[in-house]
Write a structure and sequence with these properties.
- The structure is a single chain.
- This protein is of the alpha+beta class.
- It has seven helices and eleven strands.
- The strands form three sheets. Strands 6, 7, 8, 9 and 11 form a five-stranded antiparallel beta sheet that branches.
- About 35% of the residues lie in helices and about 25% in strands.
- Helix 5 packs antiparallel against helix 6 and helix 6 packs antiparallel against helix 7.
- Bound molecules: coenzyme A.
- The site of coenzyme A has 19 residues, from helix 4, strand 4, strand 6 and helix 7.
Length: about 250
C-alpha cells in the first residue's frame, strides 16, 4: 500500500533539531548543502533527506546511516539495489515523503502563501485547452483552487514517471481524473531507466486543507499501477483535518 507522510517543517525541525537531521547526510549531500544559501531551502533539504532515510530504514530494515540515495536522469532519487519506490516534495511549511513497495510513486505539495494573478495565463499556456477554459471561466475565488488541483496532479504523475517538468503538462486532463480511472501515459525508456518504454497507468489521489493560518495546501500523489486501485495511506501528525478531494 502506498504510504504518504505529511510533515510540518517548522514543528518537525524543532523536534528533531537541525544538527541531528544533518547527521544523516552523506558526503555528496553535504556538498549540496554547502551550496545552499537560503535558510528555508537548507531546512527543507536537510529535513527531507533525514525523514526520507528514516522512513526508508523502516521499510528496508537497513540502518538509516547506511542508506545512499542515487539520482536518475532528471533527478529522481532511488536506492541502489533496493526495489523500494519513493518520492518527496516540499512547499512553504510542508514536506511530504511518499513510499511504495511495489510501484513507482510521485508526490507534489503546494502551500499557497502568496496568491498569484497569473493562474489563468499559465493554465491557458501550459495546461490542456479544457483545463485552461475551466480555470478561466471559474469564479475568481475558485481559480486558485482549480489551478493547484490541476498543477499538483500533473506534477505527481510526472514525478512518478521520473521525468518531472521535462514532461508535458498537457498530456492529460487532470480535471477529468477519478481514483478508479487511471491515466494512461507513454513513458520513453530514456527518461526513466526503471520504466521501459510503454504505456503506463497512473492512479491519482488528491487532498486539500487549510493550515492554521488559513493558507491553502494542495497535495497529490500518484502511483504507476497496472490494474489494482491502490489505497493510499496518509499519515499526518498535526491534526490538520485533511479531506480527500478526489
Ligand atoms: C521534479 C521537479 C518537478 C520538482 O519541482 P518542485 O515543485 O520545485 O519541487 P518539489 O518540492 O515538488 O520536489 C522536489 C523533489 O523532487 C525530487 N525530484 C527531483 N527530480 C525529480 C524527478 N525528475 N522526478 C521525480 N522526483 C524528482 C527530489 O527529491 C526533490 O527534492 P530535493 O531536491 O530536496 O531532493 C522539477 O525539479 C523537475 O521538473 N525536474 C526534472 C527536470 C529536469 O530535467 N531537471 C534537470 C535536473 S537533472
Amino acid at each position: 500500500m502506498p504510504e504518504i507522510y505529511l510533515y510540518n517543517i517548522a514543528a518537525t525541525l524543532k523536534e528533531v533539531g537541525l544538527e541531528r537531521a544533518q547527521s544523516l547526510l552523506d558526503s555528496g549531500e553535504k556538498e549540496q548543502v554547502d551550496k545552499i544559501k537560503a535558510e528555508s531551502r537548507l531546512n527543507e533539504f536537510v529535513l527531507g533527506r533525514y525523514l526520507l532515510k528514516k522512513r526508508l530504514s523502516e521499510q528496508t530494515g537497513q540502518p538509516a546511516e547506511t542508506l545512499v540515495l542515487q539520482k536518475r536522469a532528471y533527478g529522481k532519487l532511488y536506492l541502489e539495489g533496493n526495489p523500494c519506490f519513493f518520492n518527496l516534495s516540499h512547499s512553504g511549511n510542508y514536506l511530504v515523503v511518499a513510499i511504495s513497495q511495489k510501484d513507482e510513486i510521485g508526490v507534489d505539495i503546494e502551500h499557497v502563501t502568496r496568491r498569484s494573478t497569473h493562474y489563468t495565463d499559465i493554465a491557458q499556456r501550459y495546461f490542456t485547452q479544457a483545463e485552461g477554459h475551466a480555470i478561466k471561466d471559474a469564479p475568481s475565488s475558485e481559480q486558485s483552487i482549480l489551478f493547484h488541483e490541476v498543477w499538483t496532479k500533473k506534477e505527481a504523475v510526472l514525478k512518478a514517471a521520473g521525468i518531472g517538468l521535462s514532461g508535458s503538462l498537457d498530456a492529460f486532463n487532470a480535471l477529468e481524473t477519478h481514483p478508479s480511472t487511471p491515466i494512461e501515459l507513454l513513458i520513453k525508456s530514456a527518461e526513466n531507466a526503471a520504466m521501459p518504454e510503454k504505456h503506463y497507468a497512473f492512479h491519482l489521489k488528491h487532498w486539500q486543507f487549510n493550515d492554521p493560518n488559513q493558507t491553502p495546501v494542495y497535495l497529490s500523489a500518484s502511483v504507476c499501477n497496472g490494474q489494482v486501485l491502490p489505497n493510499f495511506i496518509l499519515h499526518e501528525t498535526e491534526g490538520l483535518g485533511l479531506r480527500a478531494a478526489s
